Amino acid sequence: MDSAVTQKLKCPIAIKLTIPEDKLEEQKEGSEDCLYSDDYEAFNIPGVEYGISLYPNYDHVGESRFIFFVSLSNPIKIDANIKIEIKSANYIFEKNFVVFEGDYTEYEKLCTTEELFDTEKCFIVDGKMIIKIDGFFTIEKEAEDDTLLQCDNFDISLCLALWKQETKDFVIAAEGKEIVVHKWVLALRSPIFARMFESGMKEAEENKVIITDFSFIVVEKAIKLCYHQSLVPHSTLEEKMKFLQFFNKYDIQPLKNNLETYLITVLNELTVCRLTNAALLSNATKLETKCTEFLKDSIKKKPISDFDILDKDFALNLFKGTFCHMSEA
Fold first, then answer.
1. How high is the pLDDT of residue 219?
2. Nearest residue to 169 via CA among 186, 187, 181
3. Domain ranges of the chain
4. Pair 230, 160: CB distance under 8 Å
5. How many CB atoms lie within 10 A of CB 107?
6. Is domain 6-142 classified as CATH 2.60.210.10?
7. I need a surface site. Which of 68, 105, 168, 282 has the fewest CB within 10 A?
8. What is the dihedral of CA 174, 176, 181, 185, to 10 degrees?
9. Is the pTM of this model over 0.85?
């Protein structure tokens, strides 16, 4: 039985196609040619291209049609969700469809050719027509390999046997739930826990610490990672970002460094803003640097998801740097 775990991968798509009125007029009487955008690659789905085109008078039948197309160089199932908008004419078209292989073309009537050139319909304004398209391609793929979270070469059977031992002597509590661990494992991983145990603090005397700034699920999985990554076979991106904060707070550097390296590999338009905030909260300088470089490179070229959640001070400095004019005296 195949036990592979799959995850959904989303790719945002967006095109703004501006067509001069004189180009539309040239096609008014009908033509085998059309007015089309460039072809664009889906940035995180290899071998996938897409674009949009417009026939002002499709096949001489007095209809204006637009065509959205997807080209696949390799067989793959894509769930597509698109929205095409002509704001000046209050026109919106939305469609969900599935692409499996080869070339896929979605034809849709926009209006009659007469209506397209009717000034009251406002498809053409100030000598041009502007068509905007946005949406998502979604595919299923095997979940990312989490082996980068592993920081030791200890035999898995040894680690699992250690985790199952009844000699655990310290309790970590969060949200009213508890997990029991070995003091020496925490001391080995974290100099902060080591100092806690040596200082005679209340936690050391009671053999218990209460953590209030992380959920129990995050605490439990982060502690298990201190034993071996095989104890946490799968976790969400949000959990991984919380692990990074946990490892930073308790100075668990080997795991933090490896997790930071892993998160850099999943950096894209959908994750960059969340990863940036996680990097800032976790003092993860390598991840912060990579996120900054990615944002500077993408901000003028590609749509970025969740930009509104980006740390405000970071965003302000980013804009200052990105839009600074370069001058030589």
1. 94
2. 181
3. 6-142, 147-322
4. yes
5. 11
6. yes
7. 105
8. 10
9. no
